[in-house]
Design brief:
two-stranded antiparallel sheet; UDP-N-acetylmuramoyl-L-alanine:D-glutamate ligase; 9-stranded mixed beta sheet; single chain; about 280 residues; alpha/beta
Amino acid sequence: MQLPVQLLKRKPDSHKGDYGHVLVVGGSRGLSGAVCLAAQAALRAGCGLVTAGVPNSLNEVFEIKLTEAMSLPLADREGSFSQPALAQIKAVLGKFDFIVLGPGAGTKPGVKSFILKLLKCIDKPVLLDADGINALSGQADILKKRKCRELILTPHLGEFSRLINKSIATIKNGRKDLVKKFALRYNLILVLKGRNTLVSDGRRLFENTTGNPGLATAGTGDVLSGIISGLAAQGLDAYIAAKTGVYLHGLASDIAAKDKTQNCLIASDVIDYLPKAIKSSL
């Protein structure tokens, strides 16, 4: 794949503000790793600034785990987001170029409500992943009430099954058609993860050829969300950012597997090998 021109060379007089600011909203007690992986991946993909919007009671954990990213402590109850966090996020939305919503947020009813309300009021480009997608189960039409123009969804087969109320077997038998129809119906970018991940905006369809079974390990989806958001924050069109991110994510895992084997691959390896994936694509 030929990389977008924005990724090939930086202007000598540029600064971090020129390469976008991503806000990753997620995390809950026992699930802090998801946000950290997404934040680190966004930075490694070239994003200039990343802020992790996390439950206030867990903020110290994120301050320790994240070195390059900033944190935004948000109102919570027992380690999960509470409704007052909505106003806190709305008050600072102007600072950000791209929002990742859902990694590690959990599935408590209050968190689901928080995510759906936030989706209705965010006017910046959004990537909805993991528990962000789970919050939509059985009520996908809420996507038509969103405020953001650009929206990327990154479900795996199980999440997509719950989203469209069809069996995984049915989806496997008609992946391409179902992905295109869903993306067109809701006017969004759909990334259906799995072997030969599919990316569609309802008109175009990209079938990825990179990646290997070593990606079947915890956290790799969070890394993908971070990579895509990091690319999009730099000004890439959402569809281009999604398909480029999917390609580089898989390629980084292929390069990593040659050194570490598929069995020993972990999510952070994909971040570590992303520079080699990008360099090999130049």
